């Protein structure tokens, strides 16, 4: 066998080590699925084998030893129904054979056990996990539009109860080892490195070779759907999950059905129910889009798909951060976490120290939660040197500038930093609005000048937008990408332009919410519709988060820059009044469209005077139409960015949109959405909206041309890649 090694010790215990060759992480390849039943047969037929310990052979050094992550991309990317069904069913058959093999099987979990990895261990009779803060156990499939299809929806509820299982699976959350123990997911937590020993001890102590659910006396914890308490869980759970997901995710509904129907049946039949709903889900456009963007494309970007291949790989060891404010402090923290020596510069020592204390606070929390050891936290913190001294920049591979958003100030610090840099070191600006080509004018080496745009809060937001100035060279692109990959974020690479890609397109969502306000829609309705589209928050709420004064400032700047070509945004006067006459700046001063002095926030009463409500009653048709309107507005802007050459890769357009501004994940991203609707239908609908609401909906010529030729974005991209 290629993927499993079997060693039998003097006590007759077979240790089966899972180790897929050539991968840093074990995945469920077709070879793996073929080999599981093979060794299960061997275990069954060999009288010398008394029990089995299943563990992972992946090295501890790179990451904790890993059981495996999830389904292989190849299978998920396909749309061959029969093949998918066969694969799903084959896995369930193999795991069922394992748990009924008649000999005790213990999982010695020495690393991440996510998705299929956890499902494999759930088919074992006993689970021991190492007490390593890096280990997580969970079923995150919902995050790519799926649900657990390797027995997870059947075994987890039988183990910990329907309610707890549904909560966990519907949010795709994971447990740390100790939480997994108290939740009842594992049986024992041991010192790291002692997992196999403990698993063997359980077998030698008479470990039982039967799953609880295969015993006559088995009762579902918390009761099944016909049990009075259990049925309550289903009714409430159903309502809650549907409300949370606004019906946008068939995976949630199908998972509920698989659990509801499955837990009433014996395990063999239950697994068939799961497979049926799993495949049904896999074939929905939502799952196909999410798998492609959030799983496959994201993985490709993470691994450097956008990196110029002919530049040798670099490894940034020392990086200076200019400005220790909100962004600079966050950037310093993520760098240090990745093992990068960090020089954190501000105008006063006090300011620089304050930036470092931000990292200290996060690290303290991580240690207290058991996610990190004190030694590791100390080592991370020791990597950050707060200072006012630009000379300490010497020897840096890269500089990230995060001082105030002022062109003159940025020019000044660019000169000061460049005086210290060796040839080839990169200068990256974290500006959120100033075009990179313009900022690069202050640089004596514009080929090494680039935009490295982080999102707030830096430690949570996974995307980094790399922006190319006119003169940015290939080496600077490659080095910036190496940096982003080292700090484990997902990069996209875009061309320069007002608002670059992400801020520009996100802005249209917020702007369209304002237009609705001006048309007389009730504010609560606008935000509800926004959330119903699958965006994380409504447009008015998000406007408050970004800050109303910032949006007034950007509008004024744009007007000054564009002169005659400037088109006023409907509803912007309302915001101008709020900022300039009433001092309402948004969440940052507790006063925006909402008042934030109480929790939960309440709608600001005065808003109805500035924007009288004329549309307060919603019908399902109206909600659907307005949901589509909000999504179309953003997608049209994405298409314009494409036409203007700001972006040219559908993967970065989709992944960037979802990770940067929360574009409804169920769509798979704006480009996938346009492709799935079909370009012709999309153009027709956008034209209708343009007639109704204004030119901002007019689709760019590029879309009309593609529609006329019957093209799709991903189709063209596949052709380009193949060529
Ligand atoms: P901030 O006001 O929190 O921090 C700016 C820091 O720069 C302050 O600590 C200030 O003392 C320092 N500074 C000023 N002059 C300096 C100099 N000559 N040398 C060294 N440090 C100096 O601002 P924030 O929010 O961190 O933004 C920084 C940059 O990041 C801006 O360009 C902003 O547009 C951009 N940005 C901000 C985002 C946000 O959500 N706040 C998101 C993405 C980018």
TrEMBL record:
Keywords recorded for this protein, A-Z: Fatty acid metabolism, Lipid degradation, Lipid metabolism, Lyase, Multifunctional enzyme, NAD, Oxidoreductase
GO biological process: fatty acid beta-oxidation
Catalytic activity: a (3S)-3-hydroxyacyl-CoA + NAD(+) = a 3-oxoacyl-CoA + NADH + H(+)
Record keyword Amino-acid biosynthesis present: no
Domain (3-hydroxyacyl-CoA dehydrogenase NAD binding) ranges: 318-496
Residue span, 3-hydroxyacyl-CoA dehydrogenase C-terminal domain: 499-596
A Gene Ontology molecular function term of the record: enoyl-CoA hydratase activity
Pathway listed: Lipid metabolism; fatty acid beta-oxidation
UniProt-listed InterPro entries: 3-OHacyl-CoA_DH_NAD-bd, 3HC_DH_C, 6-PGluconate_DH-like_C_sf, ClpP/crotonase-like_dom_sf, Enoyl-CoA_hydra/iso, FA_oxidation_alpha_subunit, NAD(P)-bd_dom_sf
One Pfam short name: 3HCDH_N
Similarity comment: In the central section; belongs to the 3-hydroxyacyl-CoA dehydrogenase family.
PANTHER family the record matches: TRIFUNCTIONAL ENZYME SUBUNIT ALPHA, TRIFUNCTIONAL ENZYME SUBUNIT ALPHA, MITOCHONDRIAL
Protein name, UniProt field: Enoyl-CoA hydratase [isoleucine degradation] / 3-hydroxyacyl-CoA dehydrogenase / 3-hydroxybutyryl-CoA epimerase
């Amino acid at each position: 066998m290629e993927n499993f090694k079997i060693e039998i010790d003097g006590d007759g215990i077979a240790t089966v080590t899972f180790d897929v060759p050539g991968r840093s992480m074990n995945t469920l390849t077709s070879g793996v699925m073929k080999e599981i039943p093979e060794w299960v047969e061997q275990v069954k037929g060999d009288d010398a084998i008394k029990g089995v310990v299943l563990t992972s052979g992946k090295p501890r050094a790179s990451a904790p030893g890993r059981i495996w992550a999830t389904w292989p991309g190849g299978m998920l990317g396909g749309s061959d129904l029969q093949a998918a069904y066969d694969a799903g069913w084959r896995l369930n058959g193999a795991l069922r054979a394992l748990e009924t093999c008649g000999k005790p099987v213990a999982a010695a979990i020495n690393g991440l056990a996510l998705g299929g990895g956890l499902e494999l261990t759930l088919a074992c009779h006993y689970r021991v996990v190492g007490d390593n803060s890096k280990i997580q156990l969970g079923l995150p499939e919902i995050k790519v539009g799926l649900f657990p299809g390797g027995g997870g929806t059947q075994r987890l509820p039988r183990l910990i109860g329907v309610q707890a299982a549904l909560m966990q699976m519907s949010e795709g959350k994971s447990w740390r080892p100790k939480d997994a123990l108290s939740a009842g997911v594992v049986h024992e937590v041991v010192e790291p490195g002692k997992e196999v020993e403990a698993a063997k001890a359980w077998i030698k102590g008479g470990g039982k070779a039967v799953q609880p659910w295969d015993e006559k006396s088995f009762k579902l914890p918390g009761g099944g759907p016909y049990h009075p308490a259990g049925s309550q869980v289903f009714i409430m759970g159903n309502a809650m999950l549907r409300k949370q997901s606004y019906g946008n995710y068939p995976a949630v509904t199908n998972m509920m059905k698989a659990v509801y129907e499955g837990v009433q049946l014996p395990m063999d039949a239950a697994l068939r129910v799961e497979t049926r709903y799993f495949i049904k889900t896999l074939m929905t456009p939502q799952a196909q889009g999410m798998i492609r963007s959030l799983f496959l494309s994201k993985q490709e970007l993470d691994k450097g798909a956008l990196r110029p291949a002919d530049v040798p790989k670099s490894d940034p060891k020392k990086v200076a951060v200019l400005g220790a404010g909100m962004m600079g402090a966050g950037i310093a923290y993520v760098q240090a976490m990745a093992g990068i020596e960090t020089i954190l510069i501000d105008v006063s020592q006090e300011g620089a120290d304050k930036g470092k204390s931000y990292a200290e606070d996060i690290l303290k929390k991580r240690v207290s939660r058991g996610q990190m050891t004190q030694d590791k936290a100390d080592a991370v913190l020791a990597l950050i040197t707060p200072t006012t001294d630009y000379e300490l920049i010497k020897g840096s591979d890269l500089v990230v500038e995060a001082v105030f958003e002022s062109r003159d100030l940025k020019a000044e610090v660019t000169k000061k930093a460049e005086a210290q840099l060796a040839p080839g070191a990169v200068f990256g600006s974290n500006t959120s609005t100033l075009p990179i080509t313009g900022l690069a004018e202050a640089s004596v080496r514009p080929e090494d000048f680039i935009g490295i745009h982080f999102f707030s809060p830096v430690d949570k937001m996974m995307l980094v937008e790399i922006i190319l100035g006119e003169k940015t060279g290939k080496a600077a692109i490659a080095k910036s990408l190496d940096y982003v990959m080292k700090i484990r974020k997902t990069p996209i690479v875009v061309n320069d332009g007002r608002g670059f890609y992400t801020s520009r397109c996100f802005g249209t969502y917020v702007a369209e919410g304002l237009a609705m306000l001006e048309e007389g829609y009730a504010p609560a309705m606008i935000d509800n519709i926004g959330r119903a589209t699958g965006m994380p928050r409504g447009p008015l709420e998000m406007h408050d988060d970004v800050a109303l004064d910032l949006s007034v400032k950007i509008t004024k700047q744009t007007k000054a820059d564009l002169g005659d070509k400037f088109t006023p945004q409907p509803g912007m006067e309302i915001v101008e009044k709020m900022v300039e006459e009433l001092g309402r700046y948004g969440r940052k001063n507790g006063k925006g469209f909402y008042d934030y002095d109480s929790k939960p926030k309440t709608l600001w009463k005065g808003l109805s005077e500035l924007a009288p409500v004329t549309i307060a009653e919603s019908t399902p048709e109206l909600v659907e139409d307005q949901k589509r309107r909000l999504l179309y507005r953003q997608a049209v802007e994405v298409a314009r960015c494409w036409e203007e050459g700001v972006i040219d890769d559908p993967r970065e357009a989709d992944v960037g949109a979802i990770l940067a501004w929360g574009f409804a994940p169920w769509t798979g991203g704006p480009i996938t959405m346009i492709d799935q609707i079909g370009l012709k239908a999309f153009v027709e609908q956008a034209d209708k909206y343009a007639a109704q609401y204004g030119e901002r909906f007019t689709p760019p010529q590029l879309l009309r041309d593609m529609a006329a030729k019957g093209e799709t974005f991903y189709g063209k991209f596949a052709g380009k890649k193949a060529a």
